[in-house]
Amino acid sequence: MPKVYFATSTGDAFYDTAKKHGVADIVTISPRRYLSIIADMHGQSYKDELGSLDGAKVKEIQQSILKGNKIPLAYIDMPNKAQDGRHRMAACMQNGMENAPSLLITDPGCVNEYYSLQESSIGRIKKHIEHTVKTTKSWALMTAWRSEAQKPEDTSTFDWKRANLQNLSAMKATIKSLGYGFATVEGVGQETDPNTKAVIESAEPSLFVPNITLDQARHLSARYNQWGFIYSGPEIQNKVGMYETEKGNPASIATSFNIDQIRKFFTRIKKHKFSFDFPGM
What we know:
Number of strands: 15
Structural class: alpha+beta
Shape: elongated
Strand content: 25-35%
Radius of gyration: 21 Å
Number of helices: 9
Order of helices and strands: EHEHHHEEEHEHHEHEEHEEEEEE
Oligomer: single chain
Helix content: 25-40%
């Protein structure tokens, strides 16, 4: 693997301006993780983000790296949803580099939790859930996605998937603006196909949001016309509740938290899944 030399921005005008803007630190990040964050920022999949890159430009940077030339430091500006360095990071990844430095600009208090959550595992999710039970903290599991069963009959002039992606991206942006981090997970359930009437698996991109308040979770759920959301916090003695968006009290309180067990409804993160048992639901 070739050694990569970075011209760091420490001490220059850009870095100083970034520090005044909020929080600016040089962090170590994997190229894949960098590109995943940018894909999320752009409201598209990791695969689509890679597809939007200029292959010739990536190859040119690869060759420059092999010659021992310095390349500018990549940066992510979270408050302004801006970045510079996708092609450099892709070149580093193509050259087999596991980690690279990047200038990270974000709002105070958001950096560590936000970026640790982007690499969330079932272990981290479990830790957040169990920690909430022992403290006065909170979390919510929600989505802005509208299921296939809710799709309009006439989609000839309406891109359903694009609308869903835009809503999810807008929800993520709002959560970030509130100062919270989140983990992107997948809510999986069952629904009836409106055409065949068959029961099918329905998977929706969802967000696990630590520290969000009940009022904020309800407001977001209502904004994106959702039936409800899962929440745990001091209002219900840090138990886990299934909330209907339009009602004040939870429709059901979970009796158990399960990992990698077969359930009709569950949440998937990477190769693992977790679920809650809600009586009557």
